[in-house]
Amino acid sequence: MDGFTRLPDLALRTYGGSVVAASDESFAEKESLIKPGRPGFMPETFGNKGQVYDGWETRRRREPGHDWALVRLGLPGVIRGVVIDTAWFKGNYPPRASVEATSVAGHPSPAEVLAAPWTEIVPLSDLKGDAEHLFPVTDDARYTHVRLNIHPDGGVARLRVHGEVRPDLSLHDGLGIDLAALANGGLVTACSDEFYSAPNNVIAPGLARHQAEGWETARRRDGGNDWIVIRLAGRGVVRLAEIDTTNLLFNAPGAVALTGLDGDREVELLPRTRLQPDTPHRFRLGADTPVTHVRVDIYPDGGLARVRLHGHLV
Predict the structure, then answer these.
(1) Is residue 230 packed enough to be buried (19+ CB in 10 Å), middle (13-18) or exposed (0-12)?
(2) Which GO molecular-function terms appear in the entry (predicted)?
(3) How many angstroms separate the CA atoms of 129 and 117, rounded?
(4) pLDDT for the residue numbered 1
(5) CB-hemisphere CA count at 13 Å for 5?
(6) Residues 88, 55: contact at Cβ < 8 Å?
(7) Helices vs strands, H then E, count in the chain
(8) Using alpha carbons only, what angle is made at residue 120 by residues 115 and 123, rounded to the nearest 5 degrees?
(9) How far is CA 230 from CA 140, 199, 292, 293, 297, in A?
(10) Which residues pair with 160 in a beta bridge?
(11) Burial state string for 137-158 with b = 16 or more CB within 10 A and e = fewer than 16
(12) Bridge partner list, 298
């Protein structure tokens, strides 16, 4: 996989993304484009509209033009790459596609977004059936919406929009925020192990529904411990830590420690502290030193559902 696919999917439904409009969805609904997980397929499964597909599929066009789907990013930001996945669409995939992006403040209607100026971030490109297509993006602008254009019609299983979150933190002036949250611009920048699941899961929006929606490592046999480093939304003072082991019944860590990082300086935020399985833990922190990153050490291995680091930007 390309390097950009390790970045968060800004359009993901579980991150607040939405397919707000489409030119057509006669055969399969537009909302499937941004569902989490790999597309599924059951052959010879027919509904009132034909074979059931886990994706977005338009009718056969009999007039000039092309179809499109408008996606509001759940996490606005800088787009580093796009994945157009035509999984299971073999005789009904679009032969070509392009992607455009725009930025509209506030809570615009689909009509207002469509009327905004658009920038092409993926030029018109050839597609294959039943395949993932990876397109790096070099544009450094911040975007809130993307439009997938398929030429002329057909089906796309998933659209992934990977990038770096760039929220409007001015909304939180004078207020405390979760400095680690992916939605606020936090990002896991280093990790000792991600054998079972991705470390950015621990700072994702919402609660983990099962253990795969958290971060879980392999079993260590070397006497060491696992860890992640979280780049905070901005330099700030962390006042409250939430360490959640929900859903991790027999594979939660035995203990956790938190260390703040600010340049070459290390600040102990939470000494090694015992954890319980399947439990949300909350710890008040006493350090007043601003930090830019936090290292979360778990002992010796295991998984975390969520990490929240509440505090104030400086």
Answers:
(1) buried
(2) allantoicase activity
(3) 31
(4) 41
(5) 11
(6) yes
(7) 1, 21
(8) 140
(9) 22, 10, 9, 5, 11
(10) 83
(11) beeeebbbbbbbbbbbbbbbbb
(12) 226, 256
DSSP structural state of residue 233:
E
Please report which residue ranges of 91-185 form alpha helices under DSSP H.
110-114
The DSSP output letter for 28 is B
Provide φ and ψ at 212, rounded to 5°.
-70, -15
- Can you say whether the dihedral through the CA atoms of 213, 214, 215, 216 is positive or negative? negative
Share of the chain above pLDDT 70, in %: 99
Rounded to whole angstroms, the Cα distance separating 295 from 155 reads 43
Alpha carbon separation from 167 to 161, 164, 180 (Å, rounded): 16, 10, 13
CB 95 within 8 A of CB 157: no
Answer yes or no: are the C-beta atoms of 87 and 35 closer than 8 Å.
no
Q: Where are the beta strands (DSSP E) in 166-214?
A: 177-178, 187-191
> Residue 104: which residues within 8 A CB-CB, separation 6 or more?
112, 113, 116, 144, 145
CA dihedral defined by 259, 220, 210, 234, rounded to 10 degrees?
Answer: 20
When mean pLDDT is compared over 149-153, 165-169, 174-178, the highest value belongs to: 149-153
Is-contact 72 105, C-beta < 8 A? no
Question: Whole-angstrom Cα distance, residue 77 to residue 145?
Answer: 10
Domains and CATH numbers, the chain: 3-165 (2.60.120.260), 170-313 (2.60.120.260)
Sign of the alpha-carbon dihedral angle for 216, 218, 219, 221: negative
The mean per-residue pLDDT over the stretch 138-164 comes to: 97
DSSP category for residue 237? E
Rounded to whole angstroms, the Cα distance separating 18 from 101 reads: 14
Answer yes or no: pTM beyond 0.85.
Answer: yes
In angstroms, what CA-CA distances link 190 with 15, 130, 194, 231, 297? 21, 33, 10, 9, 12
